[in-house]
Amino acid sequence: MRTALRTTLAALALVGTATASVVSAGAAASAATPVAPSAGSACVAAKTIPSVFAGMKVKLVNSAHSGASAKLLNDRGVVVATVDQSKPTDLADGLRITGVLSAKPVFGQRSEGGPTPWRSTAFPALSADCTLSGKLVRTLRLDSRTTAQVFKVSAGHYQARVFRDGRLVRFLDAHGRSGAALYGSRTLVLNPDGTTVTWTGSETAPAPRLGRYKLVNGATVKLVERDGVYGARLTTGHGTFPVSWAKGRPVVLQDDVTLVVLGPDGTLSSHIYGRSVQKAPAYLGA
To answer: Rounded mean pLDDT of the chain?
Structure first.
């Protein structure tokens, strides 16, 4: 990953951040005004439907990160039963999900057991970049509890699923830009060529103070916020990159030695190639 990225930089002068645009160092440095957040998605779709039980409803949630789930709500909106990837069928409450981790999960409900037919409802669909569509090419063991499955969709397009204790917890899509996931103290970056970088620690707490942060190699990151969306601007020896916005999902900012992931909650996680000691970004001030 590092060698390939250095080669690319030597050929193209500078590689952009999460947007994967190629710009010159001078052009990047001249981008003084943050642009508006670009369109993004949390890879979650939801809708509420009537229950087969009078006065009750069912909330359907389709998430690329955790699969499909359905909650049975009483007339006060209190959850009385749930089906999800850990328990896709609840015969006692007449709930089930077919294909809970598939691209097209289906919810079924019925008011009685035995031969009573199930009433089926499709979960709301996710966008293409939130839907698993590739072929499994390898599985990575990240730690004793966590694995990542990497899928190839096409040349320059890879996806990954992260499982913790056997449960799906994150989904990554890398197509024209790197995808990333933050969970617990671990960060995983998936590149469009299928390579991955992962590390533990070296992150700030969620919703940190806005302003400038210094990385262990002297590079700086400025954390900004607009309309509830966090953005970050990376400055390294190559210049200042445009602001990247984490609208609904993490974004990646990088050059040949510096790798930063910004989460939707404002968390900043950094990794410096070649450094034996990694540290979380240090706050410098507004």
So the answer is: 87
Name the token pair of 205: 């707490």
pLDDT tens digits for 240-269? 999 999 999 999 999 999 999 999 999 999
Radius of gyration of the chain (CA): 21
First to last CA, the chain: 33
| Token reading at 98 | 């077919």
State the number of CA atoms in the 13 A half-sphere of 22 facing the CB.
8
Taking only the tens place, the pLDDT of each residue in 167-183 is: 999 999 999 999 999 99
* DSSP one-letter string for 266-277: S-EEEEETT-SS
Given a contact cutoff of 8 angstroms between Cβ atoms, the answer to whether 45 and 126 are in contact is: yes
The sheet with strand 95-98 has its strands ordered as 89-90, 95-98, 106-109, 119-122
SS3 279: coil
Q: Identify the three-state secondary structure at position 4.
A: helix
